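PROTOCOL LOG
Step 1. Enter all chains and additional molecules of the complex.
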Amino acid sequence: MGHVVAEPFRIKSVEPVRKISAEARRAALEAAGYNTFLLRSEDVYIDLLTDSGTTAMSDRQWAGLLLGDEAYAGSRNFYHLEEAVRDVYGFRHVVPTHQGRGAENILSRILIEPGDFIPGNMYFTTTRLHQELNGGTFRDVIVDEAHDSQCDAPFKGNVDLGKLQALVDEVGADRIPYICLAVTVNLAGGQPVSMANLRDVKALAARHGIRVFFDATRCVENAYFIQKREEGYAGRTIAEILREMMSYADGCTMSGKKDCLVNIGGFLAMNDESLYVKACEWVVVFEGMPSYGGLAGRDMEAMAIGIRESVDQDTIAYRVEQVRYLGDRLIEAGVPVVRPIGGHAVFLDALRFLPHLSQDEFPAQALAARLYLDAGVRAMERGIISAGRDANGANRHPKLELVRLTIPRRVYTYAHMDVVADSVIRLYEDRASIPGLRFTYEPPVLRFFTSRFEPVPRG
Ligand code: F0G
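Step 2. Run joint prediction.
Step 3. Record the structure below.
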């Protein structure tokens, strides 16, 4: 099973959780329309829906909350945040936003013209939607291996430079306002991008005068994978690696709810002064003054502290290795998961797990529902439901049909991981009994959040 990296903290405060009865779980699942997003948190025993905003803050961050300067303008906490972003990420200008999608909204608005194309290394739901709402078209330029759950390549988040160049040749560089590069790639399974690839993408983009913006949401996890896997980086600190990564971008959007170790917050950062001015013009419309962007002063303080804590070697090693522990247990039992194990989650390959279901019977949604019934563990569908419909109204059929077991940062112990692993292994042994699902309600956009289902009768 490999070595276990023990917790680099001791527990000062606890939040009781309980597992409700099997009967109560069945009633809760039916009330939620078989959609794990619609369950009440109190009915969940181990919540692996997301690693977003579910982080346990440190005692220093909690202390920081008391130092909130809640002035409407010019709060000192904004300047702390700005300093932290400058020091740790290296970008000159920072616009706080209420969370990552607030930053995506502003970036898409200030850079995209109708008819533009935005290449990216696999889509993310909110990112792509903001691009489309501004008249842009997302184009996937990730390497082919990313779509193959069983390929064990070390950097499956990489951009295929051939695909990127082909898009430039096809539509012209002036139709590509920026390249949007996620580090790591959430929907590919939390897979990282290599430093060499970041460097190459920047070089290609620079030749054509195209900007590069990172979706930096899980960038510290990406830095850890570079340290572990890429030649020449074993002796470098996480902070050094992160700064080098960011040197290949013109700016970034950030969901602080992940690698900034906070429960709410985000930002848009960039070096270009004129872009910053434009971002400030829009942030006041959607979020608030450029010195708070939808956040309380105390939240900016917690994020500033979290940004500095996040690059601590022990903190990030524990985070990624705990995820790997869960993944290794499942791999040893023969459960089909996305390989290699990513930074924030273990992804079950639902098409391989439930081969008796077609993708149109929503195997990932069905498996997530059954996992809740079995053990009170909440996971998230990342497959055909998340991918939504195309412009013609047809279901998109992504190659990856996954259930994401997302591990919150600093929240659950290895014993919790064992409970999850035991349940998934039990379900795998009993997989033939798991029925497919069909819609009873489907909303028009971002349907995964609120759609409802019922089991498809068998036979
Ligand atoms: N980019 C990536 C890669 C994300 O994973 C997320 C959020 C966002 C942008 C948007 O950030 O939620 O702060 O507005 N991901 C969450 C998840 C929701 O569960 O994966 P946000």
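Step 4. Note key features.
The chain has a mean pLDDT of 97.
The longest strand covers residues 93-97.
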